[in-house]
Design brief:
four-stranded antiparallel sheet; about 210 residues; 5 helices; alpha+beta; 8 strands
Length: about 210
């Protein structure tokens, strides 16, 4: 599906059953992380079932979810610690006197902790017809607003549904799991074609969400 090829209701993949998740959607376009290894080979992935998110109240089961492993998040935190330290040293003309300032060490530690949190705290989860980010969630087939926005160096997906719920999530977080993205994309496509959800140009040009036929 793409904006160059109009899509009708009849051409949309079927909506999966909310309890069984079948049939699963086909591979969706707008996917950037084609270098991601299979789930069983993804060393960056947390596989602990006890950390698996819970579904929203009265909704179907979690079908797909992703969280970075603790080891990976710690590695990113340590990397941030050293990278920021190197950048400060370069800015000081390779003068390392700043290392004697005690509060600079606190700054580096807080920056490293923040980076750890970025990779550890976001845990997108999806059921057959819902998407949950942290404590916020939306119904994927009842979306009224679908917007792609750039914040800093990241591309975010902002969603609102007919119940007034909303989520904001980085696209690359959703695409850490190929199957999760397929579930989300199918909901986006149905919401646009069937429900007439409001979109912006970036949603079509970057994520290849289909436009309503004229």
């Amino acid at each position: 599906m793409s904006e160059e090829t109009p899509v009708t209701r009849e051409q949309l993949p079927p909506r999966p059953d909310r309890w069984t998740g079948e049939p699963r959607p086909p591979r969706a376009p707008g996917f950037f992380k084609r270098d991601k290894p299979p789930k069983e080979q993804d060393s960056e992935r947390d596989r602990s079932e006890r950390r698996k998110p819970t579904p929203p109240k009265a909704q179907g089961p979690v079908l797909e979810w992703y969280r970075h492993s603790q080891r990976y998040a710690i590695g990113m935190g340590v990397a941030a610690f050293f990278v920021i330290g190197i950048l400060i040293s370069l800015r000081q003309g390779l003068d390392f006197a700043w290392l004697t300032v005690w509060w600079m060490w606190i700054f580096l530690f807080v920056a490293a902790l923040g980076m750890y949190g970025i990779f550890r705290l976001v845990d997108p989860a999806a059921g057959a017809d819902w998407l949950k980010i942290g404590r916020t969630w939306v119904l994927l087939y009842e979306l009224t607003d679908i917007k792609v926005r750039h914040r800093g160096a990241s591309m975010h997906l902002d969603l609102k549904d007919s119940g007034g719920r909303s989520v904001q999530v980085r696209v690359d977080e959703l695409q850490e799991d190929r199957d999760l993205w397929d579930l989300v994309y199918n909901g986006l496509a149905h919401s646009v074609i069937v429900n007439g959800a409001t979109t912006n140009h970036a949603a079509h040009s970057l994520l290849e969400v289909p436009e309503q036929p004229e």
